[in-house]
Amino acid sequence: MFILKGIDQLTNAIAKAKKVRPRVEFDRFGRYRVSGSKGFYTVICRKDERGIKTVACTCKGAEKGLVCYHSAAALSLHIGLARQQQTA
Ligand SMILES: [Zn+2]
């Protein structure tokens, strides 16, 4: 799990996601399934009451606190959905 502070920390992961093009499946708002080398991983995007955003993925890299491309792929969908909710 990592704390999302800005888009900068996602640059490498986004580049990788563009290359790998994982499948992102919507489960519910804030919860997504992203295809990886060993099947699907679950990515949870949260914002706590203090406004701190955290992203958790079930892959090995994310366990070590790395920003994985699954998280980046899920976040791009999540951010789009969050924007839609705000403008709805
Ligand atoms: Zn991951």
Summarize the structure.
This protein is of the alpha+beta class. 38% of the residues lie in helices and 32% in strands.
Question: What report would you give on this structure?
Answer:
The chain has about 90 residues and is an alpha+beta fold. It has 3 helices and 5 strands; from the N terminus they run E-H-E-E-E-E-H-H. The chain has a 5-stranded antiparallel beta sheet with strand order 1-5-4-3-2. Strand 2 and strand 3 form a beta hairpin. Helix 1 crosses helix 3 (about 70-85). It is globular. About 25% of the residues are buried. It binds zinc ion.
Note the total helix count.
Answer: 3
Strand percentage = 25-35%
Which oligomeric state applies? single chain
Question: In which range does the helix fraction lie?
Answer: 25-40%
Question: Gyration radius, to the nearest Å?
Answer: 12 Å
Which features characterize this protein?
88 residues; 5 strands; binds zinc ion; 3 helices; globular
SSE blueprint and pairings:
Elements: E1 2-4, H1 11-20, E2 24-28, E3 31-36, E4 39-47, E5 53-57, H2 60-63, H3 69-87
Antiparallel strand pairs: 1-5, 2-3, 3-4, 4-5
Residues 41, 57, 59, 61-62, 68, 70-71 line the site of zinc ion.
